[in-house]
Each structure stands twice: as structure tokens, then as C-alpha cells.
Amino acid sequence: MREIGVGLLGLGNVGAGVVNILRSHAREIEARLGAQVVVRRVAIRDQDKPRAASVDRALLTTSIEQVLDDPQVAIVVEVMGGVDLAARWVLAALDRGKHVVTANKALLAERGDEVFAKARARGVDVYYEAAVCGGLPILRTIREALAADRISAIYGIVNGTTNFILTRMTEERAPFSEALAAAQAVGYAEADPSLDIGGGDAAQKLCILAALAFGTRVHPADVFTEGIGAIEPIDLAQAREFGYCVKLLATAKRVGEGVETHVCPVLLPLANPLASVRGPYNAVLLVADALGPALFQGQGAGGAPTGSAVVGDIIDCSRNIVAGAAGRVPMPYEPNLKEVAKLPMSESLFPYYLRVMVDDRPGVLARICGVLGERGISIGAVTQKERGGVGQGPVPVTIVTHEAREGDVQTALSSIEALPSTRGKVRLLRIENRLPMA
Ligand code: HSE
Known about the structure:
- The chain is α/β, with parallel strands linked by helices.
- Helices cover about 35% and strands about 25% of the residues.
- The protein is built from 14 helices and 18 strands.
- The strands form 3 sheets. Strands 7, 8, 9, 10, 11, 12, 14, 15, 16 and 18 form a 10-stranded mixed β-sheet that branches.
- Helix 5 (about 105-120) packs parallel to helix 10 and helix 13 packs antiparallel against helix 14 (about 405-420).
- It binds L-homoserine.
- L-homoserine binds near residues 159 and 161.
């Protein structure tokens, strides 16, 4: 039987998942591919580090060049992470005529243009399903299953760590730090968890989704990004009282001729299916002209789910090798991408949740409402919680507005924060109540 040689760059969580799946599903893979996938070389940094997969020591090397120069390696699988070093080796692999499978969203979001252009110039394939939502096959769905359709919006819970944290904070009333520690203990978080918490990881994934869905390049710097670090248990509880949960939502949608992209915590109606995506699960709700709304849900992190997507890509890539058909699946490289206007966040429209900590004195609420009124921001609901009595320290006033322009709301917040009765920053959360499938 024909053999397809694979070289791995990295043997961490995902690399180990790849090795284990190739071994445990070898029979099915052979039957589906009509060829054997054989791991020829594995580049690692530390020979003695304990691994979650057992690999013949003779295959291990600390030299990435040895992997790239091995004539038996047809597909280089990059599961080392990082941007610049990964770019260097991926570009070197493509230069040597190797196909590449990568799980690296940061690499593609930051330097995808170079990678895809090089692959095109060398006539080889780059597959990257695992870069977005781990094991959830959302990229293949957009690129191939929906090739006939026109996507107008993507709403995603695309970061497992933050979804896990928000779920813990909501359901177990755990403080943020404890929920983060639990996410790290089970291995969901990035090496630098600020990428998860700050929304950067989700923004990188959104760039790849938007490029495929809208045929336009979106750079992480184009995406308005706000993380979950400032969310407090009181906001989760208040949101629930208004009939919402809080999710870190990555959104890309067409607005007129432009595209609006943002990653931020939003209040989602409890009746929307995205509200019941709990723990480390990821989900993408997309809206397409012909298909209508469709929801995809699955595990977006972890060695086995992500390894499953990587091995799926290895098989797809191998099928192309067997058929002599590299380049069959188009890549979002430069000539295929149109420049489309990226709309500024200040023009976005949302209803808003605002929590203001105030001194409990007569006239305070009237002044806050007055500031909002002057900016044309209409109020839908207001609650104030009792805490002690008059003169007993600040109390939370929570306001839900009707739809308003982000720029107007931000200006109003500055004025509210400048009032002598306001204590600290106003907590602003956007409300996303226009999603389909609610
Ligand atoms: N750290 C990511 C997450 C996993 O929490 O979803 C890989 O993208």
C-alpha cells in the first residue's frame, strides 16, 4: 500500500493527539484514503520531556531542518505554535515543496498572506482546520459545504477558556481567578492566558473565519477586541435577572458594502441556542442566504479534538497527493481577497447594559438618565439594588438601553463617570438580541 510520510513540528498536547489518532484509527484511515499515513520524523525541543503520546525515539529530533529535509516527508504538520518562528519553518517547508497542515491561528491571522502566497507559488497545499474552533469542522463547512452560498453573518463562541470561565462564574458563582485556574488546570488556556482572557485568541480566529466567509482580509488590528477580565459576578447575576447570559462573542457581519467585526462580552437572550453552549464548548452560528441560520457546536480545544481536525487535514492533503491534485481547494491568498471597508466600532448599533456604582442620594438617577437623554439614548429598564441605607456606600444602578450608536454611548459614559455621584468606571456590556434561532 502506498505510504504518505508526515513530519511533525512539535509534540505538545495537539501533536500528541495527532500521533494517538493516527495510531488508534490507522485502519479506518487506510480504508478511507487507500494509503497509509506514516509519521517519519518529529521535531521537539526537549528530548526528555514527558509526552502524552509514545513515539519511537529514533523518530525524534531537535532539528527542524532534519524534518523538512527528509525526502520521505510529504506533509509537514506544524503544531508548535507562536508566530515568527512558526512562520519561518512553515515558509521553509513550503519552499522545499512540502504540503503543510497547521493548527496555528496566530500564524495565519498575522502572516497568512505570506504563507498562502508561498504555497500557491510552490503548487502545494496548506490546510488549517484546527486553527479555528479545534475539532469543530467549521472552516471546511464554510469553504466547501457552503461554497454555493453567501454568508451574511457569523456569530461565534470561539474561545473555550473564556466560555469555561464564564460558565463557572455563572453556575458556581466562582470568582474569576478561581475559574481561570480551573481552565488552566485542564489545559484549555493558551500558554499566555491573556490571549484568551483579553479576546485576542478569538479575534485571530475571527480573522480566518471572515476571510473565508467574506473573501476579504481582516487583520487582528481591524477587530474591535474587548476581553472578559473586567466582568464581575454582579454583572452575570444582573444579566440573568434581565433574561440574559454573558458570552464572549466573536462577530463578523456584512453591513452595506462593508464588514463589521468585533470580539466582546455580550448579553445573549437565554432563549438563544448559543446561550446553552457551556463549559469549554465552542459554537458558530452563521447566517447564509440560501441555507438560512445554522448552528455548529463542538470541542474547540484539547489534544484529541484538535488532533482530530489536524488528522482530517492530513487525510485531505493525502487524498490530493494520491490524486495528483494539489491546489484543488482554494486558499484565502492575496489575489482571492477583496479589500472591503471595515466599519469602526463607534458606528455599531446595540442595546446596552450599563452598571453605574453611585452614591445613594436624591437626584442621582435623574442626572444619569438626563445624560443619556441628551445623547438621544433611550432607556428600556432601570434597576437599583439597596445596599445598606442612605450614606452607606455606593449602590449599583443598572440600566438597559434601547438600540444606540456606540460612539454616543461612549461619550455619555464619560459624562456619567465625571458626575460627582459616580464611583469608579461604568461597566458597559453590549446586548446582542438580534440573533436568529432565538
Ligand atoms: N485557548 C484556546 C481556547 C484553544 O481556549 O479556545 C485553542 O484555540
